[in-house]
Design a protein that fits this description.
2 strands, two-stranded antiparallel sheet
Length: 84
């Protein structure tokens, strides 16, 4: 019983240290690469959008494993002279 409690305490300590370290890394990443654009709430859902260019509106939606930066590296610049 005593060994089980010691093991449980060690697991809890390692779990806490992992969460703390992950939060620290996430904060550094967000400081180094702040999100582009703005956040808006539509029908109770928080959306991240980036608006640039001129012309008719176009909406680009990334895949499940992508993010907005996939578009802003090159594609947005190519479309911004014809689309907003």
């Amino acid at each position: 019983m005593k060994l089980a409690l010691v093991l449980l305490a060690l697991i809890a300590v390692f779990w806490g240290a992992t969460l703390w370290k992950a939060a620290r890394h996430e904060a550094r990443a967000q400081a180094a690469f702040p999100p582009l654009g703005q956040f808006v709430t539509v029908a109770g859902a928080r959306l991240h959008l980036y608006q640039t260019g001129q012309g008719p509106d176009i909406v680009l939606i990334h895949g499940a494993s992508g993010n907005m930066r996939d578009f802003t590296f090159d594609l947005v610049a190519r479309l911004s002279d014809r689309y907003r």
